[in-house]
Write a structure and sequence with these properties.
Structural class of chain A: alpha/beta
Order of helices and strands of chain A: HEHEHEHEHEHEEHEHEHHEEHHHH
Low-confidence stretches of chain A: none
Largest interface: A-B, 46 and 46 residues
Oligomer: homodimer
Radius of gyration of chain A: 18 Å
Mean pLDDT of chain A: 97
Number of helices of chain A: 14
Strand order of the largest sheet of chain A: 1-2-3-4-5-6-8-9
Strand content of chain A: 15-25%
Number of strands of chain A: 11
Largest sheet of chain A: 8 strands, parallel, barrel
Chain lengths: 311, 311
Amino acid sequence: MKTGRITELFGIDKPVISGGMVWCSGHRLASAVSDCGGLGLIGSGSMHPDTLREHIEKCKAETDRPFGVNLSLFYPQLEEAVDIIMETGVKVVFISAGNPALLTRRFKDAGITVVHVVSSTKFALKAEAAGVDAVVVEGFEAGGHNGRDETATMVLVPAVCRAVKIPVIAAGGIATGAQIAAAFALGAEGVQMGTRFALCDESSASDAFKERCRSLAEGGTMLTLKKSGNIRMVKNELYERIEAAIDGCASADEIKEIVGTRRAKLGIFEGDMKEGMLEIGQTATLVDRSESVADIFADIEAGYAEAVGRL
Amino acid sequence: MKTGRITELFGIDKPVISGGMVWCSGHRLASAVSDCGGLGLIGSGSMHPDTLREHIEKCKAETDRPFGVNLSLFYPQLEEAVDIIMETGVKVVFISAGNPALLTRRFKDAGITVVHVVSSTKFALKAEAAGVDAVVVEGFEAGGHNGRDETATMVLVPAVCRAVKIPVIAAGGIATGAQIAAAFALGAEGVQMGTRFALCDESSASDAFKERCRSLAEGGTMLTLKKSGNIRMVKNELYERIEAAIDGCASADEIKEIVGTRRAKLGIFEGDMKEGMLEIGQTATLVDRSESVADIFADIEAGYAEAVGRL
């Protein structure tokens, strides 16, 4: 894997970013990824402000390499998160959901590199206009929250690359060196990997979640809740109940009641495989073993070289 | 683009196949693709047996190069189609839908090369066990009938490549040289392109259909009718009526009545943009001009070289 605009942007060796996923992406995962030459992201979405601060400090202690924080614009204590990021000297922020114009300028003025996560060319252009340094372009394959157009990575990445001048980081369905090579062939200059890192040793997800997702067959996930979040999850008992309600034309309130709250924590962190919301990508079907971040980097380098050799 | 198992299998120069699409893939398109060094397929799905025979004979007259026929196992006069294929000396058959064990042996015994179109690893393995020479592996991005698992090309291609020994032809979301390079990076040895050829000059689709699809924005198609066909189509008035019915929990019969019959012919061939079923892939968003098959081959060669250069 070559250096280029993305490695230069973040001051890293390999254009590989680990997504800042709720309940998975703590300081352990982020620092391990950064130590391997990639860019690790801390997932603030499942952290109280104090917890976020703690994870940032631990990450700083664990690695000298650059790392970043993923922040959703729906984070309840948004202003506190912004303060913490600035006070602790975090140098990179990946922002997901919402209007890129909201925080970009403030972070940029503080000397922080800003990347916005999008799922359409329209929002990639908005992010570029708002002054972000790069965009993560996330296709239909991705776990968790998804774009409404359902555009898959194979189409979305070249579409965005045609439209913007800033570097594009591809995400969604990327777990192996071959898929990374494919993403670069499409025009991406970096990749963000979620699923594979969510299921590795350093991820703070429960063992039950990791084992369940590693054993997933093809078609083991599905996009659902299209009117209230548009989320890709494992087809477990909770999913079946949600689908039955949608199928039976339940009201938005009835569906909301079935979904409840804290389902992601219940599933991913606490390991309840039936009642939890198990957010993972389609590419879990290619992840089938227990492995460390270092194992992953060795494997994707080898796979990448093999794929390039095919061309 | 290099030669290899797929070019050898069909006796062609470039591992690029044009899909045998209803109302689009007549002798003109097939012979033009074959003349450019690829493999053109005649789409039997929208042809009465006599029409199929006529298109095969015209194709034989128009090109000395190999071409094939795409045949769905739901074709009403299946036995007649098999007879016509054998009598006219067609050397390549791509079979879609249904059990690969049904016709594979008969065609193989007649010296015909057989490829089965699948949308899952499970069915790829069945096809391989049935003795096919290769599989087309078609991802979620593709227009028309789709797999139930909704596995996108970026994940499906490597998954199938891991599982089977026969060569894999990637389809779904492939229109440009960069996407072809990506498919090869993932392990495919050939590509089948649908959308881009459906919208080109030699396609027998109506000008209205071509123009409509070329002007499609991202997110302009959606997968619907998940319980009765699982079809990706343009989000036109017909689509909205279907979705409203599904949303309102209409019965299977009510939905069947809205869909009616001959909607694909109405839309694709006759050019009714509101009432027709406009089957096209997500990658239509990258197709924006009138072009010939020769233009397409020149463009994909250039794009492929550029993409390989990026790696």
